Amino acid sequence: MRRTRVLPPAMLLLCTATLTGTAPAVASPQAAPAPTAPLRILLTNDDGYNAPGIRKAFERLTAAGHDVTIVAPLTNQSGTGTKISSAPTITVKHPEPKVWAVDGTPGDSVAFGLSEVFEDRAPDLVVSGTNFGPNVAGLANHSGTVGGAIAAVEAGVPAIALSTGGLSVPDPVATVNAMGPTVDFAVKLIDRLRARARSGPLLPKGVGLNVNHPVVGSEGKGTAAGVTTTFQDPQTLLKADFTDAGDGTWKVGVAVDLRPPARGGDVEAVAKGRIAVSPVNADWNTGPAAQAVTAALLAGLRP
Predict the structure, then answer these.
(1) What does the pLDDT look like over 42-55, one tens digit per residue?
(2) Helix or strand or coil: residue 58?
(3) Pair 264, 299: CB distance under 8 Å
C-alpha cells in the first residue's frame, strides 16, 4: 500500500512533498476510551486553522460530546504532503482556547500537538480536515490533509483524514456546503469505531483512514449514495505542462486528466456519489507479491 498524502484540484498546482530530517513526536501510549466516553481529539488540516472545513469539524465533533483541540497550520499548506520542517525554531500562536496555530505544515502541527499540547497523554484520535477538494488517487500522495493523518499514524495514534469534493473543478459554495454532511458522516464513523473497539484500539495498529465525501446536489447539501471501502486508484488525475517563457523561467499549467476509474477504487466511489473510505498506512511497503517479484529480479546480483 502506498503512503498517501494533498493537492486539491481547486488549486491545480503541482507540489512536491519533501520529508526533511526532523523526527516526528512519539505519543505516549494510552488506554482505549470506553465506548461511551468522549474522545480527546487533536484536529488538524492543511487549509489553515481558520478554514471553513476545520471549523465545521470542530463545531460538529464538539457538539457530539468530544473534547476537541485544534492544532493546525497558521496558513494554507495545501500540497505539502508529509513534509516536516527542519528549521531550528517554529512560531506557534494560541489565538483562542482550544486552538493552536503552527507556522508550518500539517506534519509540524501534529508533531507539536503530540509533543506539547497533548504532552501528558496522547489524544485518542487525530482527525485531519475536512479538506476543500478531494484527496483520491494520486492527489492523496501530495495531500497535506492526508499527510497530517500519516504523521499521527507514524506516532502510534489512530487517525482519519477527511476531504470534501467531486472530480470536476469545484464550486466553492457547494463544496463548503458539502462539508456539513462530511463532518456529520465523520461523527457516525467515529461512533462506529468506538462501538466496535470495545476496550481495544479504535483502528488496527499502523492503519489510518482516508475518507473522501462527494459533493451531492447542485448546492452540495445532498446525501451520499452510500459508503464504500476502497483503495487508492493508481491514476494521477493531474497532468502538468511546462512552457518555456524564454527568460529562464517556465510557465506551469496543470489540467485534470481523469481516466476510467479502477474498479473498487476511491475515484469510482466518489464519481458514483458514494463516500470512499480507504485504509492507509505510514510506509511505502508494496505487499508480499511485489516483494517476491523484486526478490526474483535481484536473485544472483552481487556488488
Answers:
(1) 999 999 999 999 99
(2) helix
(3) no
